[in-house]
Amino acid sequence: MQIEYKDNYEIRNHTSFKIGGEVERVYFPKNKEELVFLLTELDDYVLLGNCSNILFSSNGYKGNLILTTQMKNWKIEGTQVTADCGVKGPLLSKKVCEASLSGFEFMIGFPGSIGGEIYMNASCHGQAISDKLIRCSLFDKDTKTVIYKEKQEMEFEYRKSILQGGKYILLDAEFVLEKDNQADIEARINKNLSFRKDKQPNLVIPNAGSVFKNPENNSAGRLLDSIGAKNFEINGAKVWEKHANFVVNNNNATSEDVLELMVKMFTAVKNNYKIELAPEIIFIGDKTEKEENLCKILYQKMQK
Ligand SMILES: Cc1cc2nc3c(=O)[nH]c(=O)nc-3n(C[C@H](O)[C@H](O)[C@H](O)COP(=O)(O)OP(=O)(O)OC[C@H]3O[C@@H](n4cnc5c(N)ncnc54)[C@H](O)[C@@H]3O)c2cc1C
User: Fold this and answer.
1) Domain termination site, one of 195, 229, 252
2) pLDDT tens digit sequence for 59-113
3) In the chain, fewer beta carbons within 10 Å around the N or the C end?
4) Which residue, by CA, sits nearest to atom 19 of ligand 1?
């Protein structure tokens, strides 16, 4: 099977942060069959969706990267919606609205793919991707077979799913939504969009969404704001002036600048509140020695 790929590929413009170096080889599968073929053939790879929840190393990555963004198949049959892992959330949100189906209004405001959203159990505005999920087809990396899991087997929690264990890749997912009045769905979509205007940076200012997860019964944004994080910046990386849990790439920031800034935010909250924030943003690619040390501080607790 011939699958599109590019060598020595600059990844930066694929990422919402607009940060990232050269990748040795990037594959662009177009459908489930091509993706399964690749996952079966390759022994070592990193797989990403729309690169909106990651910080890609400015040093790039010597290895295989699979990007699912060309996997665009989706269908609506009655209230049932099936989508490939690469389908973009905002597109699906609009398509199900046109079919008078409710449940994906939250997806309109952020640029995730279905695979990335299920990996993170993405949520906002009181809705989560897991709410309407029925089952998924997954590639099991150990047995190199395609298996199916029902929603209750996906181990969903806040910003958590079974995919984070590293054993499975999501191929596609099936949801059942609710019939509703199209104008009402549209109104909720518009409300979500206008809520975001002041509360979150749009992609004109490159960023990767919330930097840290909310600690239990607390808000990472409020903790960071209270210690003056909105004034923090390191070279081209800066905490967004309107919300302290966002880092923006203000001026050609490198992955090292962002990591350093994240450590500064993490340390300030730890020193003031004895709370260790857990990063929501995932670091991908080859690290310098300094980045290795910064990642140890940020991600040490999550690795245990
Ligand atoms: C402006 C902005 C606003 C945002 N707002 C929100 C928000 O309100 N709520 C929220 O939850 N998130 C938000 N995010 C973060 C992000 O968009 C979501 O986490 C999204 O789900 C990530 O999807 P992605 O396709 O970009 O994943 P990527 O960044 O490409 O990947 C993230 C992780 O998912 C894994 N992954 C991707 N596809 C698959 C697959 N098929 N199988 C297995 N693993 C896979 C990757 O390996 C990686 O570890 C926001 C981001 C931005 C830039």
Assistant:
1) 195
2) 999 999 999 999 999 999 999 999 999 999 999 999 999 999 999 999 998 999 9
3) C
4) 53
For 197-218, write each residue's pLDDT tens digit: 878 888 789 999 999 999 999 9
CA of 229 to the centre of ligand 1 (A): 24
> DSSP strand E in the chain: where?
5-10, 22-27, 46-48, 54-56, 61-67, 74-77, 80-84, 101-102, 123-124, 127-128, 133-140, 145-150, 168-176, 178-179, 207-210, 233-234, 237-239, 246-249, 282-284
| CA-113 nearest atom, ligand 1 | 25
What average pLDDT does this structure show over 149-167?
A: 97
* 152 and 255 share one domain: no
Determine the average pLDDT of the residues in 122-129: 94
Number of H helices, E strands in the chain: 7, 19
Q: Write out residues with Cβ below 6 Å of ligand 1.
A: 16, 47-54, 68, 85, 110-113, 115-117, 119-120, 122-124, 163, 169-170, 200, 203, 207-209, 282
Q: Give pLDDT, residue 302.
A: 62
> Which domain CATH number covers 247?
3.90.78.10
- Do residues 105 and 157 share a domain? yes
**Which residues participate in catalysis according to the annotation?**
159, 210, 280
Cα dist from 267 to 19, 243, 247, 296, whole Å: 23, 18, 15, 13
Residues 47 and 83 in one domain: no
Which atom of ligand 1 lies at the shortest distance from residue 53's CA? 29
pLDDT of residue 1: 87
The per-residue pLDDT for 304 is: 41
Confidence label for 150 from pLDDT (cuts 50, 70 and 90): very high
**Owning domain of residue 13:** 5-67
